[in-house]
Amino acid sequence: MLLFLFIKGHITSLAVLRTHRRKGIATLLMERSQEEMARIFGAKFVSLHVRKSNRVAFHLYSDTLRYAIHEVEKGYYADGEDAYDMHLDLTEYMNNKKKLQQEAMDLLSSSSAAEGVNHITTSLQQLHVGMDTDPSSSSSQVIISEKSTEAS
Ligand SMILES: CC(C)(COP(=O)(O)OP(=O)(O)OC[C@H]1O[C@@H](n2cnc3c(N)ncnc32)[C@H](O)[C@@H]1OP(=O)(O)O)[C@@H](O)C(=O)NCCC(=O)NCCS
Which pTM does this prediction carry? Predict the structure, then answer.
């Protein structure tokens, strides 16, 4: 007999201090938890419940973090409100993350990125940076001027 262990994570509660909201803290906390669930525990997906009326939390899970509605649980909360049972596929999430990281690395080492760095270097070289070192002057002055490209 084959026995498959299917490990899943579950978010039971999430809240950010009112004074610290809308700074990306919940997004960061969730992303970090998702990564650790996959990396440390080998979880394949993560689930959570959210009130149907909680538009801010629903936006966070659905649009920002890409959770999908698995089902609606009727009367899930003590006051009778329904909940969305939402799931995120962690294998897909980690694969996408790795792909994005690889794309970023490729971009950095690509010729276009190297050209971009060269362009910045050339632009900097076209600036003449000098220092007024007149000993009679009580203070030094940094002079930055554009180098003339005209032939004299
Ligand atoms: C839901 C909650 C955890 C969000 O925390 P947060 O740190 O403010 O969230 P973030 O800053 O990471 O924002 C995530 C997204 O929600 C949006 N958002 C956050 N607060 C919002 C608000 N009041 N109105 C509209 N959008 C809002 C952000 O713009 C962001 O969207 P984007 O990714 O499209 O730019 C926080 O509002 C909270 O603690 N609420 C009370 C407890 C609660 O409802 N918990 C969820 C129970 S399931």
Answer: 0.77
